Amino acid sequence: MSRSVSSSRGSESPMEPERAHRACEKCTRTKKKCDKALPACSRCTRLATTCSYDFIYTAPTTAVVEPGYLAGSTPKEAYGQGIFDPAFDVSSSMVMALLSSRNIPWREATERYFETMNPWFSVVHPELFAIRTDNLGSGASSNADQGPRDPAVALLIVCMQLVSQYDDEAAAASTNVNEGKDMIEMPAYRAAKRVLSVLRGLSAPSIELVQCSILLALFEFGHGDVMRAYVSIGDANTMAMVLRIGPGKYIEAEREANIPYEEEERRCVYWSLFVLDRLIHADCSLIHMPLQVPSPAADDLLPTSNLIWHNQNQSPTRSVQRHPASVAPSVPLGPFQRNCQCAMLYTRAYSPKPQGNPNALLEEYVELDIATRALVEAMIMQTSRWGDFYECFATCTCLLLFLYCRQLRAANTISAAGPFSPTADDIAPKAIAGLNFTIRIIADTTTDLNDQLAHRPHLLAPCSPVTPYSAYHCLMVLSHLEHLIPEADTRFHNIFASLHFFAKRWGVAGQLVNKVELFLADADETQWCFMDE
Fold first, then answer.
1. Which of 68, 137, 351, 439 places its Cα 20 to 30 Å from the Cα of 176?
2. What positions does the domain Zn(2)-C6 fungal-type occupy (predicted)?
3. What is the CATH number of the domain that holds 26?
4. How would you class 211 by CB atoms within 10 Å of its CB: exposed for 0-12, middle for 13-18, buried for 19 or more?
5. 71, 89, 108 — which closes off a domain?
C-alpha cells in the first residue's frame, strides 16, 4: 500500500530514518505517543494492526460545539435566567404572580389585611393605599391590569397577604398543634425576601420598601424566626433614617389642623417600626439584644388616625386627633395608639437606667408597674369587650409578668445581701399579688377566647404574635410559682389550650407549646429568661 507521507524535518544524516509528518490514526484516536516511523509506527507494528497516516479525524459524537463559542462569544442562553444576568430586573407582574398563581385576588388580600391587622398595627395607610390602587385591575379576572406597575407596591401587597393569612378555619378549630407546616419555608415568603433584597439593593429607598421590611419582620416574628426578624427591623430602620421618617412634633396651635395623608403615613411607619422593635423582645433569645429604633420624645406625635371607643356603650368611630406621646392613659385612644403607649413602657423595662443597683431597679419597676396598670385600667373603662383591645391587653400583660418577675428577682438579691430588708420584704408580696392580678386577666380573656374560637375560628385572624408570648410567660409563672397562685392547675390548662389555638395563627405558638412541654418534662434543666439570666 502506498502512503503519501513526507518527512517532518530535513534529513541531516543519511543514517536517520524517514518519519511521517503526523501521528498515525490509531495512536491519535487512542491518545498514545506515536514515533511516526515509516512505513508503520512501532506501536502498530507491535500490535500487528494497520498503520495509516492518511485519515480524516472526526470529533466524538458527545462533543457539541456552539458556533458562537468558535467565534469567541458565549451564547446568552448559557447564562440562564436569574440574578446573575446583568439584565435581570424585578417586574411587578413577576411579584403579583406570587398571588395570582395561588388564585388569590389581590384586592381581597389587602381588604383582609386592613380588617384584621391594620387596626392594631397600622403600617399601611388605608386611604392613601386606596388612592394609589383605585385605577388598577381587580385581580385575576382583569385583563387590563393585574396589579400595580410599581414592583415595590406589588411586593407590599404580597407582604400584606403574608401577615394576614393563616390555616383554614377547619384546621383553626382543631386543638392539635400543626407542626408539619413551617411558614418560614413557604415559597411565597422566600420569594418576597429575595425580591426585597434586589429592590433594596438596586433602587433608592422608598416608604413602600420600609413597609415591606416591617411586615416581613412581623411575619418572621410570628412564625418563630426572631433573629431574622431582628435583622429585618434593623434594615427597615436604616431605610427609615435615610428617608427621615419620624413621628413629627405635637404643636398645640395645630391641634385642629388638617393632616395630609402622606404625613400621617410616615408617622404610622415610624410607630409601627418602633412598636415591633419593642415587642420582639418578648422572646427570651432577644432579651439582652439592644433596642434598634430610637425612642420618641414626650412632645412627638402619636398616630393621629385610629378607631376609638369613647365609652362602653358606643361602637367605635374613626377619629383624627393630635396627641403627644406623653398623653395620659385616661384619654380615649385606639388600639394602635394604645400599642404605641405600651411599647414606650417596654423601652423603660428592657433598658432600665439604674442597672446593677437592686434598690433603684425596684423603684424603676414599681413605677413601670403603676404606669402599665393605669393603661390596662383605661382600656377596660373605655370598652365593654375584651376583644376590642385584645392585642393591647396581651402586650400589657406580657410586660406586667416581666416586671413582677424582675421585682421578685431584685427582692431576692436584696434579701441575699442582708437578711433584714424592709424593702424586699415589702416588695415580694406585692409582686406576687401583681402576678395573681395579671394571671387573672390572662385566664379570663383566654377562657372567653377559647369558647369563641371553638365556634368562630376566624377570630384568630387579628391575633397579634405577642398574644402567644403572653400565654407562654403566664404558663411559666404558673409552673414556677404554682404554690403561690390560686387555682394554678385549672388556669394552666385553660391557658395552655389557648396556646394550641394560637398555633393555628402563628407558628411561634407551636414552638412555645413545645417549650412548655420540655419544661414540664425536665424543669431542672430548663431556664426561663424572666427569672433567670
1. 439
2. 23-53
3. 4.10.240
4. buried
5. 71
CA distance 297 to 514: 40
Cα–Cα distance, 341 to 310 (Å, whole number): 18
Kindly report the backbone phi and psi dihedral angles of residue 37, in degrees, each rounded to the nearest multiple of 5, phi listed first.
-70, 150
Q: Whole-angstrom Cα distance, residue 516 to residue 40?
A: 86
pLDDT digits (tens, 9 = 90+) for 476-500: 999 888 888 888 888 998 899 888 8
Q: Which residues of the chain have pLDDT under 70?
A: 1-16, 56-88, 135-146, 167-181, 306-318, 352-358, 384-387, 416-425, 523-526, 530-533
Backbone angles phi, psi at 270, to 5 degrees: -60, -50
Is 398 contained in some domain? yes
Pairs from 361-369 (Cβ < 8 Å, separation ≥ 24): 361/406, 361/410, 362/407, 362/410, 362/411, 362/414, 362/423, 362/427, 365/403, 365/406, 365/407, 365/410, 366/407, 366/427, 368/399, 368/403, 369/400, 369/403, 369/404, 369/407, 369/434
In which domain, by residue range, is 527 found? 356-533
As for how many domains the chain has, the answer is 2
Q: Is residue 416 part of a domain?
A: yes
pLDDT at 290: 92
Determine contact, residues 309/388, Cβ cutoff 8 Å: yes
> Long-range contacts for 91-94 (Cβ within 8 Å, ≥24 apart)?
91/151, 92/147, 92/148, 92/149, 92/150, 92/151, 92/153, 92/154, 93/146, 93/147, 94/151, 94/195
Does 445 map to a domain? yes
Q: Hey, what amino acid is at 233? A: I
- CA separation for the pair 244, 237 (Å, rounded): 10
- Please, are residues 222 and 269 in contact by the beta-carbon 8 Å criterion? no
* Contact present, 414 and 143 (Cβ < 8 Å): no
d(CA 480, CA 495): 15
* pTM of the entire predicted model: 0.79
Q: What is the CA radius of gyration of the chain?
A: 35
Residue 332 lies in a domain: no
Write out the H or E segment, with its range, that includes residue 299. none
- pLDDT tens, position by position, 254-291: 887 888 899 999 999 999 999 999 999 999 889 889 99
Determine the Cα–Cα distance for residues 107 and 427; give it in Å rounded to an integer: 54
Q: Of 9, 36, 71, at which residue does a domain stop?
A: 71
